[in-house]
Amino acid sequence: MYIRTPRVEIYPKRIASNARSVIGECHAHGVQVACVTKVSCAHPAVARSMEKGGADMLADSRIANLQALATTGTRLPMMILRIPVPRRAPDVVRCADISLNSSVETLRQLSDAAGMFGLKHQVVIMVDLGDLREGVWPDHVDDVVRAAGRLPNLEVAGLGANLACYGGVIPTTEKMQMLVDIRDHCRKVTGLELGMLCGGNSANLPLLAAGGMPKEINVLRIGETILLGRNVLDRSPWPGTRQDTFRIVAEVVELERKPSIPIGYRGQDAFGGSPEFVDRGVRLRAICNIGREDVVVDNVYPEDPGMIVLGGSSDHLILDVEDAAEPVKVGDEVGFYPGYGALLTASTSAYVQKVIVNDP
Fold this sequence. Notes:
It comes from Levilinea saccharolytica. GO terms for molecular function: alanine racemase activity; pyridoxal phosphate binding. Its cofactor is pyridoxal 5'-phosphate. This protein has 360 residues and is α/β, with parallel strands linked by helices. It has 10 helices and 18 strands. It has helices at residues 12-28, 44-52, 63-70, 89-95, 104-116, 141-149, 173-190, 205-209, 224-228, 340-348; strands spanning 7-10, 32-36, 57-60, 78-80, 98-101, 121-127, 154-161, 196-200, 219-222, 230-231, 236-237, 246-258, 283-288, 300-302, 308-312, 317-320, 333-338, 353-356. Strands 1, 12, 13, 14, 15, 16, 17 and 18 form an 8-stranded mixed sheet that branches. It has an 8-stranded parallel beta barrel with strand order 2-3-4-5-6-7-8-9, surrounded by 7 helices. Strand 2 (32-36), helix 2 and strand 3 (57-60) form a beta-alpha-beta unit.
């Protein structure tokens, strides 16, 4: 039976196995796991696999994704990762049990919305530990916590941080201890318990595994290491996990022998870039029916190690298949393993079919 391309193949049993391995290690260190579904666009099969693997919470950055997760019948608490837009506070408190915040004005809006629906909404105040993405600067976290604590329909669950994202700052024992110390100071000046310390994401796992995580850190937000089996600090395989959990499949629509270097005067490409080319001589090139509108083309890795991804346009991916292990012809399917960016865009693209494969 023909299953159209391009497509993302999802392997739920492999994802569940990864989840059991990673979550089991976190639980052994006293850390709960909020499993992040966003790279799969909150696909229900992915969420169910994480739940089977022992997830304590489900987390996503998009309101629409959390609303979709609610229809799966899960009873796990829901966490929204992206800092809320104040005007969408009513949607946030209805779809998420917990939100991550750094703005007092947004916290006021969340409290008002929660009161309107008769809810008690939990908030985590994010602290910027130097990655320079979201978070209150450490010198006035206590002011924000104190303000949040006065709002009638909020529970200030604790503090959180995010590293190795925008700035690529690696989590260390010192960084995590800084979060603990800030929490202890906030406890002292506000009288709030602040029981949750949400120390970060998949980038924290190497520190945890090495025994360097302060015992007070009790929640991590884990997505990529479960879903792709990768150490996100260097993308090496994470021990005890599989990396064949997702597969992107495209179809060859053209096969021609062509030079490696464009011929003629060159300006910018369609995306405003000026790509560099390696002169390999005349080579056999294949064009596949997936492009930048669907996937990050330089973040897909052919299953056949003899194939080389040369680049892509909006609609096409260009491969060098001169040294492919098997002869390639028009109409053949080509499989790729996606990196994080490629999986994120392919999962989001309406033009890429999502297919469940129940292989072990």
